[in-house]
Structure prediction request, 231 residues.
Amino acid sequence: MGAAVALAGVGLAGCGGDPDAGTNGEGKLSPQKIQNDTRKAAEAAKTVRLSGTLLSKGGTYKLDMRLTANGGMGSVTTKDGVLQLLRVGDHLYLKAGSSFWQGKGGKGDSASGVATKLSGKYVRVPKGDPAYQQLSGFTDKRVLLDGVLALHGKLGKGDHGTTDGIRTVAISGDGGDGGTLKVSLDGHPCPVRLERAGGAGSLKFTDWDKEFTVREPAKNDTVDYGKLPTS
Prediction:
């Protein structure tokens, strides 16, 4: 009888085992240290895929971007349609449908004529154009991650859990009002999922360090934004 009670006690103790067993140990750290570690891991990673929705004063943006140190590629969906973005070094290209280009023609061009010629083409955006600064940020790993990974208010640590099949620990600002970030407990402490402050969207981070290459589009598939075609 005594042995049975002892075994039962061992079993109960096992059910309440260490939630950090077999993890990278981030769950034992302070929320500030977890935040510092996940930023360092994100910065050190060569590549990442970022997808989800961002809400800002400028509107709602649906993202699906693959980012690397020297560029990025993917799509940004806005009220004006789906924009395919490609950046290789300082060269930024935009591909969109004819509806996006309506009314953006050069002098002497009909809007419909220019829209037809630009539709489906990679349009190179000059670095000095205002659109370059606005759009290139979506293709810049450092800029984009620095912007979205910020949590606001007093940092706190939440529960352990599983997010998209990955063991995670949550950190948040002001109890979640300042955003909540799920950080991987498997391998490197990379961000896994973010709920932005004030309901300003949610983002998913995948394919950390999964190699891919960004290449310049074929010349016959590109148009210089500064030399819009004429009808």
User: Anything to note?
Assistant: The radius of gyration is 23 Å. The chain has one domain: 26-216.
